[in-house]
Design a protein that fits this description.
With 448 residues, the chain is an alpha/beta fold. The chain has one domain (34-440): Pectate Lyase C-like (3 Solenoid). Helices cover 15% and strands 28% of the residues. The chain has a ten-stranded parallel β-sheet with strand order 3-4-7-10-15-20-23-26-29-32, sandwiched between helices. The protein has a ten-stranded mixed β-sheet with strand order 5-8-11-16-21-24-27-30-33-34. It has a four-stranded parallel β-sheet with strand order 6-9-14-19. The chain starts with 7 loop residues before the first helix and ends in an 8-residue tail after the last helix. It comes from Micromonospora sagamiensis.
Length: 448
Amino acid sequence: MRIRITGAALVALSLILVPGAVVSAAPDGTSVPRHVERFARQTLPAGDGWAAAGPGTTGGSAATAEQVHLVRSRADLVRALGGDNATNRTNATPKVIVVDGVVDGFEGPDGDLLDCADLADPEYSLPAYLAAYDPAVWGMVPPTGPLEAARVRSVTNQTKQTQINVGPNTTIVGLRGATLTGLTLMVDTASNVIVRNLTFDDARDCFPAWSPTDGAAGNWNSQYDQISVRRSENVWIDHNTFTDGDNPDRAQPVHFGRPYQVHDGSLDVTHTASLVTASYNRFTGRDKLMLIGSSNTVGPDVGRLRVTLHHNLFDQVLQRLPRVRFGQVDIHNNWYRLGTGFDYAIGVGVQSAVYAENNHFTLGAGIAAADLLHDWGGTSITARGNWVHAHRSPPGPVDLVAAYNATHDPDLGADAGWTPTLRTGRPLPAPVVPIVVGALAGADRLPL
C-alpha cells in the first residue's frame, strides 16, 4: 500500500540537515543555526486546514534579522515577545522565537523558581479555604467572602506570572527537547501565530476554584490552559506534545469528595476565535484536552470557531477530544488510543457542525464504539470512513453515529451540513493512520 504524506509533514521531511551548518548571530548574542532559522520561517502550506483560509498563516516569517530570537528562560521569552508581558499581546512586529531547553513560567525576576506560596495573597491559604467552604458547613452554594476574594487575588498574581501573552505575526519553534512548563501561551487578539515542536508540561493552577453547582456533586475548576486561542484568526499549532509530566491529575488529592483539579485544557479555542489548524500534535495522559467554544449562548461565536484537527495522537486521554460548540470542525486522520478513565471523545455541542473522517480509535477494555460520541446539545455529526480496534477484537470500520444511536436517546443526525475543502490531499485510509501518526505526531519529530 502506498502512503501519501502531505502538508506540514512533507515540508518538514524535505529539509536536509547538514552537520556543522553555518550559524547566524541573534541580537542577544546567541546564535541560531541557519537551518533552524530557515525552518522556523516556514509558513502553513496552502490548503492545510482552516488556518489556510483568508490570508493564510505565515507567523513571523517576515521577521528581520533583529527579530530572530533564541530564548532559554522566561525572561528571554517575554523579552523576545516584546519586552513587557502586560502589553506583548499588542506587539504585531513579525518575530521568530526559537526555544532552547526548558522555559519555566514560575521563574522569578532573579531567575529562581517561585512556588504557589510565593504567588498566594497574604490572606489566602488552602486549609483555611477548605475549612470555610466545606459543603457540610457552607452548603452547596458558591463561595463568597474574604477567603474567596483572597483566592481571586491569588489567581491574579499567578496570571501575571505564568500566563505568557503572544502578539500577532509570531512564530515560536522549539529545538529538540524544548519544553514550556508551568505556563500558558495566551494567544488573544493575536492573529497569524505559529507554534511548533514544543513540549507543554504541567500548566498547573495554584488556586483552583470550588464550584458546588458544577454537576450534581460540585467540582474543582482550574483556569490555565497550555495554549489558549481567543479572539484570533489564522493560528497553526503543529508537532507539539501536551502532557502533565510528573504532576498528573490522578495524583491530586480529593477535597469535598471531588478530585482537586489543577489542570484545565491543552488547546482551547474560544471567545470567537477561528481559522485554526492543529496538526501532528501528541496529547498524552491528560483529562480535559480541547474546548472549541466556551459557552452555549447563541451570539458572537455563531459562524466562528472553524478548526481543523488532523494527524494528532490522543493517547490515554479522557475527554474533550474535542468538545465543540457552533464551529465547523474538520477532524480527520487522527489516532485515538483510549483506556482507563476515558469519558468520551467527540462532544457534539450546541449548533456544532463536526465532520469526522478516516480516524482510527484503539479502545481499551470496557470501551465501546457507542462511547466515542457525547451529545452536549448538538443535533448531528458527519462521520465517515472511521475504524475502531476494540479490546481483543480485530479492527474494522464503524459507523460512529449508528453506534451511538443504538444505545442513546435522542438520536444524532448523520449530516452536519457541510463538506471540508481545505485539505492538502485525500485523507489517508483509517487503517494506516496509527502507523503515520504514531511515527510523526508530537514534539522532537521535526528536523531540529
